[in-house]
UniProtKB/TrEMBL annotation:
It comes from Streptomyces filipinensis. This is DUF1876 domain-containing protein. It comes from the Bacteria.
Length: 103
């Protein structure tokens, strides 16, 4: 007779992400603060409107926020890579880097 497999209830975590946008025409700056409860990570990005383009603040917000979110994703991937190495897991070389060397 087999016994049913007991499973643990899923762990639920909440991470808080605050995104701050500031506009100083023609520049828009995005700042992200991610609080995981154990760590706090921060990223920044900018967007600059071409002076010949129409003034549409939403576009600058979207570009700056999107770039800051991409930068935050790269920070998280670097943190995970460091944690993987810290626990002694094998390092697997990937032909496609997940972040740029200068970041």
């Amino acid at each position: 007779m087999t016994r049913p497999v007991r499973s643990r209830p899923p762990a639920v975590k909440e991470w808080r992400l605050n995104l701050y946008l500031s506009e100083h025409d023609p520049d828009t700056t995005a700042r992200i603060i991610l609080d995981t409860g154990e760590n706090v990570l921060e990223s920044h990005a900018e967007a600059r409107r071409n002076p010949y383009d129409p003034d549409v603040p939403e576009i600058g917000d979207e570009l700056a926020a999107g770039r800051a979110l991409i930068a935050m994703g790269r920070r998280l991937l670097r943190a995970a890579d460091g944690d993987i190495k810290a626990v002694g897991a094998d390092d697997i070389e990937d032909a496609t880097p997940l972040w740029l060397a200068r970041e």
